[in-house]
UniProtKB/TrEMBL annotation:
GO molecular function: endochitinase activity
EC number(s) per entry: 3.2.1.14
Name of protein: chitinase
Residue spans crossing the bilayer: none
InterPro entries linked: Glyco_hydro_19, Glyco_hydro_19_cat, Lysozyme-like_dom_sf
Residues spanning the signal sequence: 1-23
Taxonomy of the source species: Eukaryota, Viridiplantae, Streptophyta, Embryophyta, Tracheophyta
Keywords: Carbohydrate metabolism, Disulfide bond, Glycosidase, Hydrolase, Polysaccharide degradation, Signal
Organism: Spirodela intermedia
Catalytic activity: Random endo-hydrolysis of N-acetyl-beta-D-glucosaminide (1->4)-beta-linkages in chitin and chitodextrins
């Protein structure tokens, strides 16, 4: 009899002790400049702990080659400075070490693919040329759409710029509001300041484009539960859905097209280079059969 009571009280004692740690209570901690204040992600490893300068150099080994188009622009410190703003929100700090590294590889998979000047016979292979550009070189239109909310600023040009290239006044407007920098008046900032360029790209990765829709981050790290509609549209958690969110039907729902395959190839290359390995790419890697969250052209970058 006595023994049983003792057992019960031990169990209760454990529950009480485990309570606060298991709940969703925000942690307060201060782990250097990356993470100040309350956040459930604080105390977890930071991006700098898992992804160091030599890895950045491995991923983007050709970015300062003589034929590259943004020599000297992109660097590790700019990425880390920008990422630090989003680590308290879960960027690169969600899940355990493997998920954290995978998210960095996934984010950079998009960036590498969109800023590459690699082609079939390029030295080092076509996947070695990420961060070759920081802007669109020969825009063939002015990307100024009529908008009440984000009217084009006189003299400003809204061609592609940045790490996940931003096109159109409306997208510069939305993202500028998001990162609290007047990109509508100064779209050129994204080709002048690599920290801002990464900040804009990570904001895009972390932010749902519409109410009730997930962000690329959410679908990748497992924060998102597909609705019945999503399932009927073949939208499932994984890397594939990140392409759906960032490019919609420009990459998804078209079968195995280059625009999709190229992003996947970069992601997998980076998984290998970071030592995670492409065998951990995760389920639902492609979006070949997915219907777009937001059909036709209007989903920002590409
Ligand atoms: C922090 O890291 C641990 C293990 O490394 C992980 O289980 C946990 O989910 C992480 N915290 C958050 C909020 O993702
Ligand atoms: C680039 O942008 C960052 C973030 O807004 C800012 O702190 C920094 O001073 C800028 N650098 C330059 C050279 O303007
Ligand atoms: C589900 O999809 C149908 C048909 O595409 C649409 O009419 C409906 O509004 C969607 N429901 C939700 C909750 O999104």
């Amino acid at each position: 009899m006595d023994k049983r009571w003792a057992l019960v009280s031990v169990v209760l004692g454990l529950l009480v002790m485990a309570g606060p740690a298991m709940g969703k209570k925000e942690k307060m901690c201060d782990k250097g400049w990356e993470c100040r204040g309350p956040s459930v992600y604080c105390c977890n490893a930071t991006i700098m702990d898992l992804f160091q300068v030599y890895q950045f150099e491995n991923l983007f080994s050709k970015r300062n080659a003589p034929v590259a188009h943004a020599i000297g622009f992109w660097d590790y410190q700019a990425f880390i400075t920008a990422a630090a703003l989003f680590e308290p929100l879960g960027f690169g700090t969600t899940g355990g070490k493997q998920m954290q590294m995978k998210e960095i590889a996934a984010f950079f998979g998009h960036v590498g693919s969109k800023t590459s000047c690699g082609y079939g016979v390029a030295t080092g292979g076509p996947l070695a040329w990420g961060l070759c550009y920081n802007r669109e070189l020969s825009p063939n239109q002015d990307y100024c759409a009529e908008s009440y909310e984000y009217p084009c600023s006189p003299g400003a040009l809204y061609h592609g710029r940045g790490a996940l290239p931003v096109y159109w006044n409306t997208n510069y407007g939305v993202i500028g509001e998001g990162i609290k920098v007047d990109l509508l008046s100064h779209p050129e900032y994204l080709e002048q300041n690599a920290t801002l360029a990464f900040q804009a790209a990570i904001w895009r990765w972390m932010t749902p484009m519409k109410k009730k829709q997930p962000s690329a981050h959410d679908v990748f790290v497992g924060n998102w539960k597909p609705t019945k509609n999503d399932t009927l549209s073949n939208r499932l958690p994984g890397f594939g859905a990140t392409m759906n969110i960032l490019y919609g039907d420009l990459a998804c729902g078209q079968g195995f097209v280059d625009s999709m395959n190229n992003v996947i190839s970069h992601y997998q290359q980076y998984l290998d280079l970071m030592g995670v390995g492409r065998q951990f790419s995760g389920d639902n890697l492609d979006c070949a059969e997915q219907l777009a969250f937001n059909p036709t052209g209007k989903t920002a970058s590409t």
